[in-house]
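### Sample
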Amino acid sequence: MTPSIFPNSVFNGSTALTAACVLLLTAASVPFVTSLTASPSPSSASSSSAGSCNNPSVPSPSSAMTSPKINVIPQSRLFVSEPNPAWFGNGDNEKNDPAWTNGNWLKSRFHFSFAEYRNPGNSDFGVLRVMNDDLVQPHRGFGTHPHRNMEIITYIVEGELTHQDNMGTKESLGRGSIQFMTAGRGLRHSEFNHGDKPLRFIQTWIVPSRYGLEPNYGSSDGTKSAADRTNKWQHLVSGVMDAGVETPVKINQDTDMYATELETGKSVSFDLGDDRQAYLLCMEGSVKVNGKLLKRHDASEITGGGNLVVEAAEVEETENGPRAHVLMYVMAKVDGAGRTDMLEVQQ
């Protein structure tokens, strides 16, 4: 590890250990959260085979006539990290492997300050602390490393991710699958692409409702539920406190995650409450969000409440056929949330 690349001061006393996922946060580094305690929550995050039981596509009368504020974050405003393979226990980059789609073993797009990327104007979006869009080339990955006090969610876009941890878990997951870790008091794991084609995944870190939780792991196999997210929202993640909602994954925070794969000409809608905010990522193809265009890798901060309409603008060939592929996190509204380093906020 190279201290000059991953200094301890990057996150106000936190320790960044890898460009793709390792950050140990303390309460001092997330001052907007006031309810964190050192004692464990009575309930821990969990996973199940159940799908969503609610329909976010039906607008309520109170918000059907309003329109949320949408701030588009183009991929040009994301930080791109391509770390030395030796720092993560990998061999030299392949020079002549036709399966490689990038010259470096890892290409990571950081949506928020992380590792060597330091931007006080872009540190979080509410409880959403980290979102990294990682492209890992064949037979490369991240060796065993620690995490602590974060709810970590990984969504596989393409390829196959193999996870192994010190709790005895080892499994491989494909497209549309999610895995979560309640890092809590601390755990160690590794992430690898053992396949012959590139792996792409979105790893997100959510600030938990409490610190010091019992570590936990769970997952949901998305390769068996592609129909559940085709031209409709699939509700994949919700909070443990939301007892009335069934999702494959439950985390220790008031946060929901949805995914959809849109075919040509298709659209979905979503009713965003006045007390909620959303972060939406276009992973494949391009979409229009209430008329605003998001291309591959573009994101948007959504606030203000109202009805969202997400429609496929352009599809691309994927493992499931021609699709526009979207991921969205919805969480409690935090006044002033969002990037402050961009001069224009699109209304």
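The longest strand covers residues 321-332. This sample (Pirin N-terminal domain-containing protein) is used throughout the tutorial notebook.
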